[in-house]
Structure formats: structure tokens, C-alpha cells
Amino acid sequence: TKRISLERIIREKALYRGVGVAYPCEIDAINILQATYLAMHRSLAGIASFKPMELWVDGNQFKPYKNMEHRCIIKGDSRCTSIAAASILAKQYRDNFMQMEAVHKPEYDWHKNKGYPTKAHRKAIERYGVTSLHRKSFRLIN
Fold first, then answer.
1. What percent of the chain is modeled with pLDDT above 70?
2. pTM of the model
3. In the predicted model, is pLDDT for residue 53 greater than 90?
4. pLDDT value at position 27?
5. DSSP secondary-structure letter at 34?
6. pLDDT above 90 (res 21)
7. Alpha helices, H only, 46-117
8. pLDDT in tens, 114-142
9. How many helices (H) and strands (E) does the chain have?
10. CB 117 within 8 Å of CB 140
11. How crowded is residue 119: how many other Cβ atoms within 10 Å of its Cβ?
12. In 1-142, which residue ranges form alpha helices assigned H by DSSP?
């Protein structure tokens, strides 16, 4: 797909790049917004030599990281190339992770739904239960 080819270019050309992860149990414990900040902070920690003049963040809020200046940009992924690139890397990381997990748990259809709660995915949860990759605080079944 186009996103895969863009990911290759970004990995090749980007001066700095990092991906941070927040795990389902962390999301359940601290909520999705705080877990998003946690993942962003982990991403920044992974590129410790990166000292930007200003971080550009997609959205309308951000939890400051190590006194770095930041600017929130609503719809930043459609307005700023670096935010769009970060979004592509994050989505590709998630998709690749879910593809690997699909090998271990094919009944959840993760190779197709990438973890999004499709109708088939919800039926699999009803039939097989939840895994450590499911957020318990999210309404998984109807």
C-alpha cells in the first residue's frame, strides 16, 4: 500500500524517529489520554539525542515532556509533514505488531482488523474471551 512505501521513505530520510507504546493494561489503569501521553514520552525518550526547538503535536493538548517547548496542532497530520510522518510510523508499527500477533491468535482476525473492534472481532471475543492485548476498560462486546 501507499502507507508501506511512505514508511520506507520516512525510515530512510528522517533524521530522528521513534515509536512509543502504551500497553492495554496501562491504558486500562491510567485512561487512553494519559496512555497516549505516555507513549509519546516513550517515543521521545527513545530518541534522547533529539533536541528540538519545539515539538509539534497532533491534537489540542499535550502533557509537557522534560521542559521541551511544544505546540499542539489540531489536524496536524493533514497540516504538517513531520506529524503526518509520525502518524504513518505509528500506524505501521501497530499494523505490523497486530500481524505478528495474528499468527498466535488467528481466531481474532487481527491480520485483517488490526485490533479494531469489527463485528467479526467482537464475535471472536464473545466466543474465545479477551487476551492481554484487549483493553478491559473498553466495551468489547455488546
1. 98
2. 0.87
3. no
4. 94
5. H
6. yes
7. 76-79, 81-104, 110-113
8. 888 889 888 999 999 999 999 888 776 55
9. 7, 2
10. yes
11. 9
12. 2-13, 24-30, 32-45, 76-79, 81-104, 110-113, 119-128
Cell numbers found for residue 17? 524517529
Angle between helices 81-104 and 2-13 (to 10 degrees): 120
Residues counted in the chain: 142
Contacts of residue 81, defined as CB under 8 A and 6 or more positions apart, other chains included, come to none
- Distance (Å, whole) CA 87 – CA 40: 11
Q: Is the dihedral of CA 49, 55, 60, 63 positive or negative?
A: positive
Q: Where are the beta strands (DSSP E) in the chain?
A: 55-58, 70-73
Closest residue by Cα to residue 44 from 23, 66, 24:
66
Q: Look-up: residue for cell 530520510?
A: 13
* Closest to 90 (Cα-Cα) out of 29, 13, 6, 24: 6
Q: What is the pLDDT of residue 141?
A: 56
Cell of 52: 528540538
Question: Amino acid identity of 50?
Answer: F
